[in-house]
Amino acid sequence: MRSVLFISGLLILAFAWMGPLPEMAAHSFSAHMTLHMLIVAVIAPLLSFALAGLAIDPVRHMAALFSPIPASVGELLIVWAWHAPWLHHFARNSSIGFALEQTMFLAAGVWVWLSAFGGTMPRSKSRAAAGVVGLLLTSMHMTLLGALLALAPRLLFNHHHSLIGLSPLQDQHLGGAVMLVVGGIAYLAGGLWLTVDLANQRNPNCEALQA
C-alpha cells in the first residue's frame, strides 16, 4: 500500500508539473489554483502517508522540526505570501519564480501532513492531538483565503485570458472556490481522521486497572 501511495503521488506530481496545467496557470487563476491544490491537498498527503513511520521518516529523527502547529503556521505564511499580488505575478511571469513557488508549496504541504501523521508508530496522543489542531488550522486558513478570492468584487490578479469563456473575475472566483472546497475539505478530513484515531486509542492507565 505504501508503494501504491508513493508511486501515485509521484505520477500525479509529474502530471501536475509536466502536463498542461503550468502553461494554463500562466494565464488563468483557476488553473493556477487547481495546480496548487493538487500539490498541497493531493500529492503532499499521498507522499506523506507513504513515508510516515518508516525508518526514513524525518519526523522520527528531527521531531522538533516537524511539530504540527508550527508547520501549519509556516504553511499559512508561505501560501498567503505567494498569493500576494507581486509574488503571484513573479511566479506567473518567471520560470524561476514558478519553480520556487511550486517547490515551496510541495515542501510546505509535506511538512504539514508529515508532521501530523509521521513519527514513531503507534502515534502518540500528544502528536495526534497536535496534528488535529495543525490540520484544522490549515483547513481554516485555506477556507478563509478561498472565500476571500471567491467573493472579491474586483480582480486581485491580472491574467491575459481565462478558461472556458469565463471573464477574468469569474475565473478568479472559480479559483477561489477550488481552494475553498478542495483545500478546506482535504485538511478538515485529515484532522477528523486523526481525531478518530485519537479517540480510539486506549488509555494506558485504564488498561493497567483492568489488568
Automatic annotation (TrEMBL):
InterPro entries recorded: Caa3_assmbl_CtaG-rel (IPR019108)
**Where primarily located?**
membrane
One GO term of the cellular component aspect?
plasma membrane
Membrane topology designation = Multi-pass membrane protein
Pfam families recorded for this chain?
Caa3_CtaG
Can the keyword Cytoplasm be found in this entry's annotation?
A: no
State its location(s): Cell membrane
Give me the segments passing through the membrane. Answer: 35-56, 63-83, 95-116, 128-152, 172-194
Q: Which UniProt keywords apply?
A: Cell membrane, Membrane, Transmembrane, Transmembrane helix
Superkingdom classification of source: Bacteria
In Swiss-Prot or TrEMBL terms, this protein is called: Cytochrome c oxidase caa3 assembly factor (Caa3_CtaG)
Q: What is the originating organism of this protein?
A: Bythopirellula goksoeyrii
